[in-house]
Amino acid sequence: MADKNNQTEAAENLSQLLQIRRDKLKQLQESGNDPFVITRFVSDNDSGNIKENFDALEGQEVAIAGRLMSKRGMGKVSFCDLQDKSGRIQLYARKDEMDEAEYNRFKKYDIGDIVGVHGVVFRTQRGEMSVRVVTVTLLSKSLLPLPEKFHGLTSTELRYRQRYVDLIVNPEVKRNFVIRSRFIKHVRDFMDGRGFMEVETPVLNTISGGATARPFVTHHNTLDIDMYMRIATELPLKRLIVGGMDRVYEIGRIFRNEGMDPKHNPEFTTIELYQAYADFNDMMDLFEDLLSSAAQKILGTYQVQWQGEDIDLTPGWPRMPMHEAVKQYCGIDFMAITTDEEAVAAAKSIGVELPETADKTWGNALYECFDQRVEEKLIQPTFITMHPVDVSPLAKRSPKDPRLTERFELFICHSEMGNAFSELNDPIDQRQRFQKQVELRDKGDDEAGMMDEDFLTALEYGMPPTGGLGIGIDRCVMLLTGSDSIREVILFPTMKPND
User: Fold this and answer.
1) I need a surface site. Which of 81, 128, 232, 472 has the fewest CB within 10 A?
2) Cα within 13 Å of Cα(178), Cβ side
3) pTM of the entire predicted model
4) Does an H or E element contain 135, and which?
5) Is 423:238 a contact under the CB 8 Å cutoff?
6) 336 — phi, psi (to 5°)?
7) Mean per-residue pLDDT for 275-300?
């Protein structure tokens, strides 16, 4: 009963605070000081620059704008902390140094209000770098109170749902998104510097393809057809390789109608790139160079901490065929196994079961042993190569063993960071693999691919040997920021609506 009474009292107090703020706004509007009619404020400085260049700016007048985050004093002398894009700085206001009416209005401003200030840079008697206020203009009235200083916005779900409040009261959160922006810029500079051209391909498609994933389905009213939000950019980009655009890449949103967990969000960002006359070994070199150089440029080091592990991104990452990884960690030598039945039995002997929709084949047994028993053990950057054909419908077969493909995935801290192939350019083989995907789909596997006749037509015109690579931008940013959840590096992650 006491808890219920406390909740009722808290709700009543909040209601009173909201009304007080609205009453203040009404008084301002009635006195001709409506903040919402102001259209602009020209600032020439910010808190970070003032602190970094204090000696040069001391005694100079500056114009700054930001949000009030605290208030102290409020007699004839007032202190406030103003927060802007680069940090916080103290405001010092004296009644006898300002217009009296303006000072009296300033005293009534609330924490959360946005103001523009003209003032002089100086240091207080306590040595704090500050701005002595000459004039202050209310630019926007905050009608909702910010979370309390010491309790803050601590609920992770509420932080993601109200990212705008999260960024206000937890300004350190901004670091992740600064690093994200710098990483994407680095990726573009890196690719452009190697002669790749950035392109754009459709988000809506009549066929879902390019990956093994469940798509989102929507309806085009004018054409009266269902369409699929893209689960990959692979097939359109390969069409461009056919057309003679030898080096292309796309950075963009991908949509997969799948589960959500710390590593997965239904919409996420990738870069996919394709290079004619290259293979998966070239893609390994490129990926290693791209990610290690990003760490060095953005963080200044190859050493990062992620998910409780010390990760070394120094170039020279090991490259291990999947069957060797399974042999090393599980003790099963799949290369000595020749039949599907024996392979499935070997998997079961270590507690690995194949999904109901998967065919009981040598390749699927090898892959499931890796997926269920080995992936979790890969901490340092490791390229896992030579995936089975059964799980690689778009990769070129290995000339040494037709059961395997020239494919790799990069794993860091038991997380897949990217996926690459020597691309399949044999249209006859590709049709057979598409048909296999169609059969799996008919059996109920809604993640299996569809038959793409137009892509097969493109391949029949001839696609040169090509290396392709897809990289998860969000996972890479998680690594560089040390974030354990993908929601920490997506500004607006997908959330279940409030009731």
Assistant:
1) 128
2) 10
3) 0.92
4) strand 129-140
5) yes
6) -95, 0
7) 98
